[in-house]
Design goal:
This protein is an all-beta fold. Helix content is about 0%, strand content about 55%. It is built from no helices and ten strands. It has strands at about 1-5, 10-15, 20-25, 35-40, 45-50, 60, 70-75, 80-85, 90-100, 105-119. The strands form two sheets. Strands 2-10-9-4-5-6 form a six-stranded mixed beta sheet, with no helix packed on it. A four-stranded antiparallel beta sheet has the order 1-3-8-7, with no helix packed on it.
Amino acid sequence: QVQLVPSGGGMVQAGGSLRLSCVVSGRTFMRYAMGWFRQAPGKEREFVAAINWSGDDTRYAESVKGRFTISRDKAKNTVYLQMNSLKPEDTAGYYCVAGNTVAGPYIYWGPGTQVTVSS
Protein backbone atom coordinates (compact mmCIF):
# COMPACT_ATOMS: atom_id res chain seq x y z
CA GLN A 1 0.00 0.00 0.00
CA VAL A 2 1.10 3.54 -0.73
CA GLN A 3 0.15 6.62 1.25
CA LEU A 4 0.33 10.11 -0.20
CA VAL A 5 0.26 13.07 2.17
CA PRO A 6 0.03 16.51 0.55
CA SER A 7 0.76 19.86 2.12
CA GLY A 8 1.30 23.46 1.09
CA GLY A 9 -2.16 24.54 0.03
CA GLY A 10 -3.58 27.87 1.11
CA MET A 11 -4.87 31.22 0.00
CA VAL A 12 -2.96 33.64 -2.19
CA GLN A 13 -3.68 36.67 -4.31
CA ALA A 14 -3.60 36.51 -8.07
CA GLY A 15 -0.04 36.67 -9.33
CA GLY A 16 1.31 35.02 -6.21
CA SER A 17 3.02 31.67 -5.70
CA LEU A 18 2.53 28.50 -3.70
CA ARG A 19 4.44 25.26 -3.49
CA LEU A 20 2.66 22.01 -2.89
CA SER A 21 4.49 19.01 -1.48
CA CYS A 22 3.49 15.37 -1.34
CA VAL A 23 5.30 12.82 0.79
CA VAL A 24 5.04 9.21 -0.34
CA SER A 25 5.21 6.41 2.19
CA GLY A 26 4.61 2.69 2.07
CA ARG A 27 5.92 0.82 -0.93
CA THR A 28 8.40 3.56 -1.72
CA PHE A 29 10.89 1.14 -3.25
CA MET A 30 8.54 0.98 -6.21
CA ARG A 31 9.54 3.33 -8.99
CA TYR A 32 6.35 5.29 -9.25
CA ALA A 33 5.61 8.17 -11.55
CA MET A 34 4.00 11.01 -9.64
CA GLY A 35 1.53 13.68 -10.57
CA TRP A 36 -1.05 16.25 -9.58
CA PHE A 37 -4.69 16.58 -10.52
CA ARG A 38 -7.13 19.27 -9.47
CA GLN A 39 -10.86 19.69 -9.17
CA ALA A 40 -12.80 22.90 -8.73
CA PRO A 41 -16.38 22.97 -7.42
CA GLY A 42 -18.84 22.04 -10.14
CA LYS A 43 -16.07 21.09 -12.55
CA GLU A 44 -14.55 17.84 -13.67
CA ARG A 45 -11.26 16.67 -12.29
CA GLU A 46 -8.36 17.61 -14.55
CA PHE A 47 -4.75 16.64 -14.98
CA VAL A 48 -2.20 19.27 -13.94
CA ALA A 49 1.30 17.82 -14.13
CA ALA A 50 3.29 14.60 -13.90
CA ILE A 51 6.88 13.43 -13.58
CA ASN A 52 8.47 10.04 -14.15
CA TRP A 53 10.61 8.18 -11.63
CA SER A 54 13.93 9.47 -12.92
CA GLY A 55 12.67 13.02 -13.27
CA ASP A 56 13.62 13.45 -16.90
CA ASP A 57 10.10 13.29 -18.29
CA THR A 58 7.55 15.87 -17.20
CA ARG A 59 4.07 16.55 -18.54
CA TYR A 60 1.87 19.61 -18.03
CA ALA A 61 -1.65 20.69 -18.83
CA GLU A 62 -1.69 23.52 -21.35
CA SER A 63 -3.37 25.77 -18.82
CA VAL A 64 -0.38 25.65 -16.44
CA LYS A 65 2.58 25.41 -18.82
CA GLY A 66 5.17 28.07 -18.09
CA ARG A 67 3.68 28.79 -14.67
CA PHE A 68 3.85 25.47 -12.79
CA THR A 69 6.86 23.23 -12.29
CA ILE A 70 6.78 19.66 -11.01
CA SER A 71 9.85 18.11 -9.43
CA ARG A 72 10.75 15.28 -7.11
CA ASP A 73 13.31 14.47 -4.44
CA LYS A 74 13.73 10.72 -4.42
CA ALA A 75 15.83 10.74 -1.27
CA LYS A 76 12.92 12.37 0.55
CA ASN A 77 10.19 10.45 -1.28
CA THR A 78 8.61 13.80 -2.04
CA VAL A 79 7.13 15.40 -5.13
CA TYR A 80 6.64 19.14 -5.44
CA LEU A 81 4.45 21.43 -7.50
CA GLN A 82 5.75 24.98 -7.68
CA MET A 83 2.92 27.24 -8.78
CA ASN A 84 3.75 30.76 -9.94
CA SER A 85 1.67 33.53 -11.48
CA LEU A 86 -1.43 32.02 -9.96
CA LYS A 87 -4.80 32.92 -11.37
CA PRO A 88 -8.28 32.74 -9.80
CA GLU A 89 -9.07 29.89 -12.19
CA ASP A 90 -6.34 27.84 -10.49
CA THR A 91 -8.56 27.67 -7.42
CA ALA A 92 -9.28 24.00 -6.74
CA GLY A 93 -8.56 21.03 -4.57
CA TYR A 94 -5.21 19.59 -5.64
CA TYR A 95 -4.58 15.85 -5.47
CA CYS A 96 -1.25 14.06 -5.44
CA VAL A 97 -1.19 10.80 -7.38
CA ALA A 98 1.16 7.90 -8.08
CA GLY A 99 1.22 5.41 -10.90
CA ASN A 100 3.38 3.08 -12.93
CA THR A 101 3.99 5.45 -15.83
CA VAL A 102 4.00 9.20 -16.31
CA ALA A 103 1.10 8.82 -18.75
CA GLY A 104 -0.97 7.04 -16.15
CA PRO A 105 -3.16 5.45 -15.08
CA TYR A 106 -2.68 6.73 -11.56
CA ILE A 107 -3.56 4.07 -9.06
CA TYR A 108 -2.87 5.83 -5.77
CA TRP A 109 -4.51 9.08 -4.75
CA GLY A 110 -3.91 11.26 -1.75
CA PRO A 111 -6.42 13.55 -0.04
CA GLY A 112 -6.88 16.97 -1.57
CA THR A 113 -5.20 20.15 -0.46
CA GLN A 114 -7.09 23.36 -1.17
CA VAL A 115 -5.61 26.18 -3.21
CA THR A 116 -7.59 29.41 -3.33
CA VAL A 117 -6.51 32.32 -5.51
CA SER A 118 -8.27 35.63 -4.98
CA SER A 119 -8.53 38.31 -7.61
